[in-house]
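# nightly structure sweep
# worker-07 picked up a monomer target from the shared queue
# config: single-sequence mode, recycle default, output format = structure tokens
# input follows
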Amino acid sequence: MKKIVIGLFAILANSSLAMAEDAGCEAFRWPVTREQALFAAASATPSGATLAVGAAADLALVPVEKAGFEVPPERAPASGTFGAVATVEVPPEGAIQISLSGEAWIDVIQDGNAVKSAGYSGVKTCPGIRKSVRFKLAAGPATVQFSGAKKADLKVAVLAPE
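# output follows
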């Protein structure tokens, strides 16, 4: 009898874990299905490139000491982590949403000043996507700084918020 109870408990635990993983992406404050689709086809992109709104990139990161940040990151990156700098042309609406496949800090710089985020959502149980951050900016060029990543690559999607 004890083996049956343990077996049933194991089955229930595995089922609950699988359901939690499936529901993990639903825990975001806004949908991330566009990012998931874009990440699957993201092309390799070096640090320093321009990120297109409506697309994703598989961004190659460099050691943070070599990233060439325009301004120091708001959250000081730990040594041994990775970072990158990219540019983006902000659309006339002025709102962008930057989503990442892994953990990293995002700073957006416009006119030499760091811009505070307008919204944040992060989930550790969504396969392939870790966080999504929204910014309200002026139309025109902006610099996006990524820092504190533990791995040397990061998928990044830049979208207009839904």
